[in-house]
Amino acid sequence: xxxxxxxxxxxxxxxxxxxxxxxxxxxxxxxxxxxxxxxxxxxxxxxxxxxxxxxxxxxxxxxxxxxxxxxxxxxxxxxxxxxxxxxxxxxxxxxxxxxxxxxxxxxxxxxxxxxxxxxxxxxxxxxxxxxxxxxxxxxxxxxxxxxxxxxxxxxxxxxxxxxxxxxxxxxxxxxxxxxxxxxxxxxxxxxxxxxxxxxxxxxxxxxxxxxxxxxxxxxxxxxxxxxxxxxxxxxxxxxxxxxxxxxxxxxxxxxxxxxxxxxxxxxxxxxxxxxxxxxxxxxxxxxxxxxxxxxxxxxxxxxxxxxxxxxxxxxxxxxxxxxxxxxxxxxxxxxxxxxxxxxxxxxxxxxxxxxxxxxxxxxxxxxxxxxxxxxxxxxxxxxxxxxxxxxxxxxxxxxxxxxxxxxxxxxxxxxxxxxxxxxxxxxxxxxxxxxxxxxxxxxxxxxxxxxxxxxxxxxxxxxxxxxxxxxxxxxxxxxxxxxxxxxxxxxxxxxxxxxxxxxxxxxxxxxx
Amino acid sequence: xxxxxxxxxxxxxxxxxxxxxxxxxxxxxxxxxxxxxxxxxxxxxxxxxxxxxxxxxxxxxxxxxxxxxxxxxxxxxxxxxxxxxxxxxxxxxxxxxxxxxxxxxxxxxxxxxxxxxxxxxxxxxxxxxxxxxxxxxxxxxxxxxxxxxxxxxxxxxxxxxxxxxxxxxxxxxxxxxxxxxxxxxxxxxxxxxxxxxxxxxxxxxxxxxxxxxxxxxxxxxxxxxxxxxxxxxxxxxxxxxxxxxxxxxxxxxxxxxxxxxxxxxxxxxxxxxxxxxxxxxxxxxxxxxxxxxxxxxxxxxxxxxxxxxxxxxxxxxxxxxxxxxxxxxxxxxxxxxxxxxxxxxxxxxxxxxxxxxxxxxxxxxxxxxxxxxxxxxxxxxxxxxxxxxxxxxxxxxxxxxxxxxxxxxxxxxxxxxxxxxxxxxxxxxxxxxxxxxxxxxxxxxxxxxxxxxxxxxxxxxxxxxxxxxxxxxxxxxxxxxxxxxxxxxxxxxxxxxxxxxxxxxxxxxxxxxxxxxxxxxxxxxxxxxxxxxxxxxxxxxxxxxxxxxxxxxxxxxxxxxxxxxxxxxxxxxxxxxxxxxxxxxxxxxxxxxxxxxxxxxxxxxxxxxxxxxxxxxxxxxxxxxxxxxxxx
Amino acid sequence: xxxxxxxxxxxxxxxxxxxxxxxxxxxxxxxxxxxxxxxxxxxxxxxxxxxxxxxxxxxxxxxxxxxxxxxxxxxxxxxxxxxxxxxxxxxxxxxxxxxxxxxxxxxxxxxxxx
Amino acid sequence: xxxxxxxxxxxxxxxxxxxxxxxxxxxxxxxxxxxxxxxxxxxxxxxxxxxxxxxxxxxxxxxxxxxxxxxxxxxxxxxxxxxxxxxxxxxxxxxxxxxxxxxxxxxxxxxxxxxxxxxxxxxxxxxxxxxxxxxxxxxxxxxxxxxxxxxxxxxxxxxxxxxxxxxxxxxxxxxxxxxxxxxxxxxxxxxx
Amino acid sequence: xxxxxxxxxxxxxxxxxxxxxxxxxxxxxxxxxxxxxxxxxxxxxxxxxxxxxxxxxxxxxxxxxxxxxxxxxxxxxxxxxxxxxxxxxxxxxxxxxxxxxxxxxxxxxxxxxxxxxxxxxxxxxxxxxxxxxxxxxxxxxxxxxxxxxxxxxxxxxxxxxxxxxxxxxxxxxxxxxxxxxxxxxxxxxxxxxxxxxxxxxxxxxxxxxxxxxxxxxxxxxxxxxxxxxxxxxxxxxxxxxxxxxxxxxxxxxxxxxxxxxxxxxxxxxxxxxxxxxxxxxxxxxxxxxxxxxxxxxxxxxxxxxxxxxxxxxxxxxxxxxxxxxxxxxxxxxxxxxxxxxxxxxxxxxxxxxxxxxxxxxxxxxxxxxxxxxxxxxxxxxxxxxxxxxxxxxxxxxxxxxxxxxxxxxxxxxxxxxxxxxxxxxxxxxxxxxxxxxxxxxxxxxxxxxxxxxxxxxxxxxxxxxxxxxxxxxxxxxxxx
Lengths: 512, 632, 114, 192, 480
What we know:
The complex is a heteropentamer.
Chain B: H1 2-7, H2 11-27, H3 31-59, E1 67-76, E2 79-87, H4 89-112, H5 119-137, H6 142-160, H7 167-198, H8 203-217, H9 220-236, H10 245-248, H11 254-263, H12 268-275, H13 277-280, H14 284-305, H15 311-331, H16 335-362, H17 375-378, H18 380-394, H19 400-415, H20 417-442, H21 457-480, H22 482-485, H23 498-521, H24 526-533, H25 535-541, H26 546-591, H27 599-628
Antiparallel strand pairs in B: 1-2
Chain D: H1 2-21, H2 24-49, H3 53-73, H4 77-101, H5 116-139, H6 153-161, H7 165-187
Chain E: H1 8-26, H2 34-52, E1 61-62, E2 69-70, H3 72-91, H4 93-99, H5 103-122, H6 126-144, H7 151-182, H8 187-190, H9 199-216, H10 224-231, H11 234-259, H12 264-286, H13 292-312, H14 316-347, H15 352-355, H16 358-361, H17 363-377, H18 383-398, H19 401-426, H20 444-462, H21 465-479
Antiparallel strand pairs in E: 1-2
């Protein structure tokens, strides 16, 4: 048997969290070093896995499979394919950034880092799961850590953090209730009792064998969409997201925007589109339209926002709209764009939030008119903000350009009008990002920030790590894209198969 | 050497890029090292570019058969996206122009920026810009072009906002980026359509695919693509109505204005059309639009330039006007005229901007030309260079502008008389306002409080080099056969049409004389004229209030709707969510009302439930009885 | 429709239904009392009435069973035992309540609600 | 007039037929049932409607005894005995004791009731339940063949010590625990 | 003939009961009765261990003519009850010491309730069932009123007694009707009798079900639960929530599946409707509660709804789901009530206000509470999630998609009020609340119980295989 790489990655934060339980709660140094060690270890392992991922062979790699719950047909089955591998890397990168962003947590650091590690473990588990049960198990692991972290370490701005935490969790769980119904229906319909399984591959096989009738697919897909879509902050189910960002502590915002939302998108691809392609196809015009509405609407809202976290919160709603658009256009190009964009947007938002967190931690301000001219005293912070901002507006050479371009290529031929609007929003994005950067960083100096130190040492780590990946993948996209391609490749037959399936608007003609 | 240059053409953009990285990561704090690194890199690129030119000439690489090197940059979702170098005469010309101007500006900047603490940063950005621009020039496909297109846009943004502490600079940078972004949006659409339609963005492949496509399906769809693609150049090359960013871009350091906003980046749009001329040339409607928009922009910008007062602003509007010329040339089907003008303009406009920089630095950041005067005494070299530039742009032989402008006018006259007329009027106005600039700033009496002094050697020598180029490049290009190399389709007639040339010379001379009479001799009072013109003067002086109109529309379509959306989000979308929460809690309270502690009520409810169950059972029993008829 | 005479014939022909109806009425009376009385002890009495009614059912069913059988009566006996235990506990509780609060009226037991 | 006449005629005819068809035991049976059932219901109402709780308790005892008589009338001798002993004896004593322990000054109004609305509601609930149970009884085609088992005690004893020995033992535990529990509860907090 | 092996557990518990009574008598009056508790725990642990050996593959044993059946199914439930009882006795050691006056009798009554449950679990005829049920119920009437220092306690007992008597009467009425229709009280005989289709049979079934609904506190038979849960001593509340309910479920399933299978379509509809009502009503009403014990009552209503949803799909998957869920619900309850009992002991109450700042006073307790509550809500990685998957898979499999809908949505909604508790424990303290941060050191017995239950909740949540296999085993022998 090979070295259980993925299990090691999954266990690292869990073991660390468990070990931290026994560290005295005043020993902050040990606690944060322990957390950092775990995430560094994770990052190294994920990077190792990423570069050892055999793009020629494709398929699911680093597989481990152990029977787990026999009567449900659950296996402890982990593995990564071209879709989940980059996302796993994303987890590694954001994980370490989140730990270092929270380096100076003073309030109850022990609990903070334990919960943070649990959160990281949860998302890791979701991405490596090759079994739907395992997927769900990790999928909702975020609930308690996030709630408690918002409650204890969050901040109250527009709404009390207690309220927001509650809203966040209840909203998402309500969404996932629908998703769970859908999953149970899938599970029950896939195979007759006794042969049932949660294994992704087996479920797909069931789909290919026609166990999911068209009407079943059409009725079940919306359930999954509601669940994954609300986590993806699909318009109009995004209401939890900006508030959640605003109230959460920085590390949670990073993971939330950087990973959790991608979890929704990932689930939508993995469970929704792959298992129920006909259903996805049927609903796609509606979803694409709402996705684009979300893109535009959220971009408009950003224009009127003042609070940094709300700005990034709404902007990530807008960007997630692109991803949803890419996924629901249902062709290989757009979906690979969407997957790549998941990684790109994850890193970008995480960087944004880590920078905001840095300045918020020190000034307890995050509203734009109050923060100004930071470039005078904080060049590193400025670089961080500029990098994130430029990535956000899709500047070529940075990670987000090519994914967006690919999404547009994939979408434009199928849904020209929607794509047109979506593309036009890049102008809006530029507008709000530049407005933000201009006011925040540039302009006359403000003496009150002279005392605040620039990012140094530990607080530079997020910028360095995320920046390296943003630029690296931006300049050499094939590193990322080759992996994604080999994840999307097996999907091509699925898309071909549904190319002529009816949508809610009737059969769509003229699709390339 | 020549082979090396040809086969390593990809090094041309890469070297400045490396310089950017090195300066950015390492030597940012050290001014001198940064400058050396930047200049070294660009010099190397310059030499390589010369090598490329040599290769083109010796190996006879022609427009129809370019030399291409490419590699796969990324494969995604069935697309294969390449990067590489496409070398043909056009590229070679652009490489040389860009590296020359960039080198000059780099050297100039050593002098210009010596007191600025951000010099390291400045050189880093300049290097990055050079890298992007050169990358753009050697693009093999639309995507590469778009990538570097955005790259130069970024550098432009960074450099306009170089003095980030100035609010005006900050705003100008933002404006530049966003305005060009609007253009990029259109261009991106065009590129997407090309990719979707042809499955490739590669110039060489498209060159064969496009005619086939036209053969099969006609031009209507391609016309849409062409128009969309043209939106990009409208933004980048400051064509009406997206020209508004260019005058404001003068907030950046003057070398930047010279390099980016006059000589190189702004011509990227022109270059893009030139590069993709195999598409545009097939689309008469698009060509017409280009020609007329170019002509209109040229005229329109000239009318504004006439009344402006800040030195660099006049030059900026002049740039817009000249870019309009180039567009016009492309629109009337003369690639070589356009490119020729591009080249000469790059030299003389860079020259003028550098002079402006010298003057403004000498004047301690005073930009209003009416506050200058008599500078020719204080800054003789600068004056001479400036004068060469003005004459060149005015189109007097044998200066560079004459040959290129003449080629454009001739091409226009061939296609459409109104266009020719428009171009001629613009030429007249150009000569007038450039002379005005020269006369107001450099002639007359030296003011008492004028601090101006001749500049240092770093700043002087580039001026001289560019001045020389401004003088000779036209004639050299004309006689050495620029149009033998850079052309599209059939090689064009190169002889000078002396009717057109003569009339243009006469017009320019009249304009210059007139300016001389007004501003030096002061035969007519300029103020009087302004008052007489009334509304027209106001319109011109305020650039037709276009900024204000845009601001109004932005407020209306962006900020107002943004606030509305926010309101909707917090009150309706969020309101529904919160309302549902409150509703559920309300239901909770209502449902728990019977739970009032009264035991007997509990019993009653219990029995109500029992009765309901019994009713159900009776219902079921009756059903069974009716089915079975009472028998079991 | 059944005529009056037929009804009288049925009514006087005592059988299982008579007992069932009787027990139902007794149960209903007990239930009515359980819902209307205030004192805990009368309530317990009503409960006893209801349990008694059920016992009548059981015994009657037993009596009218086609085959000889005693389980119905046995059930009734167990039910008596349970009823007795219940009433014992109930009375003890009444006593507790009376000592705690000086009243045995259940409508005054309102500390727990909501 | 005719209709009335017809009814009267019918009644006479029924009386004659009844006298002819039925023997005395059946008649007695009916008489006994209606007598004790009617009395039981009457006393049961008394439990509810007496103002004095002591009267209620006595009325309850009377109900129990009537029911016991009914048991006896259908041959459930043992049940009747148990009924009289446990209900008529033990339970009645327990209740009377409880009344004594929780007595107050004015026994005349010691059996209060809830308000009018509650009476109406209770009447509806009880009435509906009665209706339902009556419907159940009427809709069920029971076999109505009375069996004369004779002395039930041996049979019951047999069952109790064979088939149902376990419930029997458990019931013993139940009584024990109920006793202990009742004692503990009654002792309450102020045992010193 | 009589096979005493089949009732060995019951005998052991009875002996233990008598032993506690005796020891209680022998101990000096001023003794604190801890020995009684220890005897109880040790005795129960040994019974538990002993009972492990009783699982069998051979046909189930009956005590006498099939009226008392000791199959794996009942064994599983018995172990559940015993386990619950052990946990409750352990975590309530201090609580009992502080609040309960008659501790010796307290433990005896706990054991008698346990005996009742065990008898119920094995009951295979209505008499045994009834006696067992009443033994449990009457023990609980007494136990609920066992806090002499609190007027609410006796009030709760009175309410429980009155409503409970009403329910007993109804259930007996139902039994009598069934007896009338079929002429038997033995499940196995009843199930073959076509006369169940009489109105009397049908009405009898619903009346018996009403009795069970009362035990499970399903809406609209739930009215007693909140008041009683709130008023009862905390350990008793725990028992009411987990053991009493589980016992009711155990015998309810046996009645439905063994005695009335031919009426399946008839009662399944009813179960589904009542289950949906309970899920909706219980969860929604729980939202406004401030007192956690009271909230747990409403929550238990909803939990009963979930379990009934699985019962509504009448096959062994449903039974297994119920058993699985009952087990994990037991662990969750133990955790939650262990914490609550400590809090009540230290701070005098169990409202949100009393729980405020618990995360600082005792992080361990707060964590255990959180895990337990989350498990009740059914959120991974706790056991509740696996349980819900089992339940609703069974329901969907049977065609009750709407029920699964209601169930999942309500269970996710329920996270709201569970998180209200978490919020109280973890939220920032205001200036005047600094007292709440005063550290609480839970006694060892509580700590061990709480940690064990939390660990069990997590382990079952992540690795449900063992429990699934056990329940599978038990339920399959039940369905034969």
